[in-house]
Amino acid sequence: MDISIIFKLAAIGIIVTIICQILKKSDRDDMAMVVSLIGLIIGLSVVISMISDFFSQIKQLFDFF
Fold first, then answer.
1. pLDDT value for 1
2. Would you give the DSSP letter of residue 2?
3. Which of 13, 19, 33, 47 has the most other CB atoms within 10 Å of its CB?
4. Which residues contact 39 (CB under 8 A, 6 or more apart)?
5. What percent of the chain has pLDDT over 70?
6. Radius of gyration of the chain (CA)
7. How many angstroms separate the CA atoms of 10 and 27, rounded?
8. Close Cβ partners of 29 (under 8 Å, ≥ 6 residues apart)
9. What's the pTM?
């Protein structure tokens, strides 16, 4: 695990927050919700790939098939 992943997740969160605030100020609440959901999906995909890599390393460590 690398610390750059934490920075990627933080950057995704900051960008999504800024875009949502801009959209809410311009009375586009529906688009702000879509942007926040897309940001959530992107963040979860990063985390799920990390968990998958973790379990594959555990599998290799114990030689499970």
1. 62
2. -
3. 19
4. 12, 13, 15, 16
5. 95
6. 17
7. 26
8. 23
9. 0.79
pLDDT value at residue 64: 66
Residue 2: how many other CB atoms lie within 10 Å: 8
The answer for residues whose C-beta is within 8 angstroms of residue 28's C-beta and 6 or more apart is none
pLDDT digits (tens, 9 = 90+) for 11-31: 999 999 999 999 999 999 999
SS3 assignment, position 11: helix
CB atoms within 10 A of CB 61: 8
Retrieve residue 40's tokens: 């959530």
Torsion of CA 9, 1, 53, 10, to 10 degrees: 0
pLDDT at 65: 59
Domain locations along the chain = 3-62
What is the Cα–Cα distance from 14 to 65, expressed in whole angstroms? 40
Only one residue has tokens 């379990």, namely 55
